[in-house]
From TrEMBL:
Protein name: RNA polymerase sigma factor
Record InterPro entries: RNA_pol_sigma-70-like (IPR039425), RNA_pol_sigma-70_dom (IPR014284), RNA_pol_sigma70_r2 (IPR007627), RNA_pol_sigma70_r4_t2 (IPR013249), RNA_pol_sigma_r2 (IPR013325), RNA_pol_sigma_r3/r4-like (IPR013324), WH-like_DNA-bd_sf (IPR036388)
GO biological process: DNA-templated transcription initiation
Entry keyword annotation includes Transcription regulation: yes
Family: Belongs to the sigma-70 factor family. ECF subfamily.
Length: 203
């Protein structure tokens, strides 16, 4: 049964305090929650953040009005908690001091936030051999971590968690046009990183 089909019954069980419903929710959503926490706050903090989020869910599930999908609500909790963790550990300030140098990309997008000239997809842009490179994977993680906060979060929600644009807007509180621009800018930085690695073999 899909998440969408089972969600009303699952919500009813969670609100009633049914342990089986809680176990099913953890099995269904915890992997996505952990990926999000790891990408925003780092691998070391991810498990603690997710555990704290589940405690918050148990305490607040009766107040969840269902205006968004359950998964969107859970990821929003994780993202907020992960951002709070970054502020406490000053990692966010470190990213501000060490940003990816990014030229203005405004001339690449139209007023709706779409590419004026479409870029190639990942499949044609990245030879298969590069995907097996540990150095490239490490470089990718470094660049992902240094992206501006909302760009990184939009990319994680879309590419790692499969969120729709509507869900990204809900989770990040941005307009559809802004969500597309955030994703385009993040993808552009990573495309250019891959191009540079392909040419020089260096991050």
């Amino acid at each position: 049964m899909s998440e969408t089909q089972s969600e009303p019954d699952l919500l009813e069980g969670l609100r009633a305090g049914d342990p089986e419903a809680f176990r099913k929710a953890v099995k269904t959503y915890a992997p996505r929650m952990r990926r999000t926490a790891s990408a925003i706050a780092g691998e070391d903090a991810a498990d603690d953040i997710v555990q704290e989020c589940w405690i918050s869910v148990v305490r607040n599930i009766k107040g969840f009005e269902g205006r968004s999908a359950l998964g969107t609500w859970l990821i929003s909790i994780v993202a907020n908690r992960a951002r709070s963790h970054l502020r406490k550990t000053n990692r966010q300030d470190k990213r501000r001091r060490e940003p990816i140098r990014e030229e203005s990309l405004d001339d690449l997008f139209d007023q709706r936030g779409y590419w004026k000239t479409p870029v190639s997809d990942w499949g044609s842009a990245m030879p298969e051999g590069l995907l097996e490179s540990e150095e490239l994977r490490n470089c990718f993680r470094i660049h992902l971590e240094r992206l501006p906060e909302q760009q990184r979060e939009a990319l994680v929600l879309r590419e790692m968690n499969g969120f729709s644009y509507d869900d990204i807007c809900e989770a990040l509180d941005v307009s559809p046009a802004n969500a597309r621009v955030l994703l385009h800018r993040a993808r552009t930085v990573l495309f250019r990183m891959v191009d540079g690695f392909r040419e020089t073999g260096e991050c």
